[in-house]
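Re: weekly structure request thread

Next one in the queue (695 aa):
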Amino acid sequence: MKNKFIHFWNNYTAFYRIVLFLSATLILLLSFPREGKFKYEFQKSKPWLNEDLIAPFDFAILKTDSELKVEQDNALLDSRFLFRLYSDPYMKKYTEYINNFEQSWTQKYSPTPKNEKVKQFNRVMGKILLDSVMLKGIVEPSVLLQGKGGDFEIRVLKGNLALTYSLKELFTIQSADRYLREMLPKKAKEFPEIDATLLLPLLEKALVYTIRYDAFANQQQKQSIISGISLTKGMIQKGQRIISKGELVTDEKYKVLNSLKQDYEAQIGTSGKPYLILLGQFLLIGSALAAFALFLFSFRVEVFHDSNKLVLLLLLIILMVNVISLVSRYNSLYVYMVPVCLVPVIARVFFDTRMALFVNLMTLIISGFLVPNSFEFLYIQLISGIVAIVSISKVHRRSQFFFTSLMIFISNSLVYTGIVLIQEGDFSRFNFDYLGMFCAASILTLLAYPLIFLFEKLFGLVTDVTLLELSDTNSSLLRKLAIYAPGTFHHSIMVANIAEEVVYELGGNPLLVRTGALYHDIGKIESALYFIENQTSGHNPHNELTYEESAQVLIKHVINGIELAKKHKLPEQIIDFIRTHHGTRLTEFFYIKQLQENPEEEVDKYKFSYHGPIPFSKETAVLMMADSVEAASRSLKEMDEKSINDLVERIINRQIEQNQFDNSNITMKDITRIKRILKRKLMSIYHVRVEYPVL
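Done, posted below.
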């Protein structure tokens, strides 16, 4: 049982990564639709490269979106606006008219039997005139009727009936008022008992809109018209030849092929075996992620064995594929609004160009099964992804994100224009909506900036932007170092300049080693005077300590530095430079002094040794060399080419003998180059000139 547990523990890393990739495959599988995929790819104005295609079943030819839109627009243009006649407003106004008439008549005339008959006659005549207007209807003003002539027709809903009227057959408030002003005098001449002066203001006050635009009825009418339009035109019979090999995919052929594709995928989804479709999708996704794992294991093994980095890369792929899947299900035309270039941009910021390109390629390969015209989509996004990677190769300014966003938009637009010209041969079908979607995708790519900050915190990674912020010598911790340990601060800057130059020429991350060098000695802040570069008064506090105690003070500055860095929340990548810049070497000065003054005693090396670990990267190894060489160069009595050569050779060879670089990805050839660069830098710092030969 114990042996089985040990075997499992030794292979835990492999098991963990297998589970990680399987989990990613299953999550991606959930984003795939449960339907089959048409096995042919085709493009308009391109030749059919497959064998002759024979219709496998009867299917209808679908109309294109543009054809449907034209038919819908024409059908809606022929339809009439629907208005409704409402009786309630008139009944309310009629009641007001009766009350107002009674009051006005009583105020003007005394109540006599004769006057009562005249009163009754006037009231009835007023009602007749009012009914003649209101029962026909007064149309409420509407923006839909602005500029329409009298012959423009609308439909008026009266109960269950829909009657067609021209506008001139109906009243407006103005025309109704004119009608009353014309009719009342005529009636007064015909019937002298009518008091037109009393009735006219009462009737005008009773006018109200009774015909109003019915938005709900119009919406129902619109839906009914649209639903009544056929989505198809014509049929293809089973066994009929659709297209021959080499034949050009014309507009008509494209419609037929697209109709077959939709019908085929629908039939596969309903009549096919779902578990076989699922198995096929699993194999496709699994093979893509297996290729990705193989790439990492072969060329980026440090990323493959770093769980945080591996999870980040898989998360980028999963998130983008799921976003593309959701947008494609909602409306496949909007897939070009998805900021696919977020993946290569974020991958490039955290990793190298090759990694960013491969991650982008994996994302596009998997997404290609989710979008229509997958080749066009893949080609456009691949080119823009490459442009994004190149344009953001080094993120030293936030403005670079805006420049990258602009380059993505230009790239997408140019590639789309090329595709249109190939397919159509002119600009007549250039869809400017695509430019709007490309613009939206480019703007959304700016989300990379906050996402990078979020991923830094979640996965404990650092980017060049963070390193630039940390390397600012006005930051609180570096200002503290400059105030309390000015000699150490100056030494750190010198080491940073030297190490940065070495890594720049050697190949690596110059900004990382520069930032690490600036912070590598911050542990000296608490005991600055115990380090010779800060002793300006001539007093050396080590004179009051034993050699062992002095060694412990020096060793403790590494521990203090780690604690101080964690307190100020420096990234682990920077703390690594503090941990490793002395490795497991001895504090040789005090160790040798202890041996010389106590030759009979056995000296415990551990008490005089730094606790490590030793450097484990090219950058941390370079820092150890630069730190030791720069510090030792200050003790040289003669600054000439020979003394600097001897110093560099002695110190670095001694570090090699102590196995300080065993865990670093650095070769003897690299070390030889580092020595040469260090010698050149020290000679330039101390202004040493090469001695010219004498004839």
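The beta strands are 53-54, 59-62, 82-85, 153-158, 161-166, 211-213, 232-236, 241-243. The radius of gyration is 43 Å.
Next request, please.
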